[in-house]
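Researcher: Here's the sequence for the chain we discussed earlier.
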Amino acid sequence: MGVKITDYNLPNIPTWCPGCGNFAIHASLKKALSELDISPTEVFVSFDIGCNGNGADLINSYGFKGLHGRSIPLAVGAHLANRRMTAIADIGDGGCFHEGLDHLVHTIRSNYNITILIHNNANFALTTGQATVSTPKNKPMYGLPDGTPERNINISEFILNLDPSFYARAYSGNPFQMGEIFKSAIENKGCSIVEILQLCPTYNREFTPEWAKANIKEIKEVEDYNANSIESARSVLTNNSPLYTGIIYQNKNLPTFYDSLECRKNSITELVDEVKTHDIKKLLKYFE
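Model: Thanks. This is the structure I predict for it:
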């Protein structure tokens, strides 16, 4: 029969705000995993602290909710221990680009074979809408009623400058395209980054479905676009007008971290298979 999307369902009721993009993101992820015929017992998802992290209670898989900004190293550890698992890191723009920025940089640099889903709603939503690195300058936010004074960071350009194995951008209001992007990211051999432009009707009210309809375009609309060219990718990300979604860049020539390890090239087992039990009773006697 194969894996069904309902195999990933749990009975818990979501607590997200009405209209939150997380509903579509999680539905698209479940759809992608089921269509790839990946069993829930073969999936590990590490969740960040934040609204996205509430999804840990809503997807039937091996899951772990870590500290704020730390979901990426959790996924890396799970992947390195057992590559039979599909490892996914689920994180918000706040956790990813504040506490977790170093993890993002080094995971892309090392090219671990995991998928990173970045929920970009341009604010810390769970803690009532503080500014993040993607919040536009001068926009009034909680704690900053006169507007945030710092410049924002162009997340897309930042990621692209690290020469990732795979970078795509999705929009939570387009779940069908988002699901296809998730499938491509999971199938990619290497570190796959998906930045999700996420609706947040409570704390980012300027980013509405109407605004998105007028300003977001699919990359397939760009004539002769070459997703294997970093120059092509930079050309569509420079001014963010319009915002393009789809597979922006893919470099299939980068070796993964594991493929670069000489000490593991002849191994036929996973690290989890090599864990042994050691009796330390004799050792403990020295401390009596």
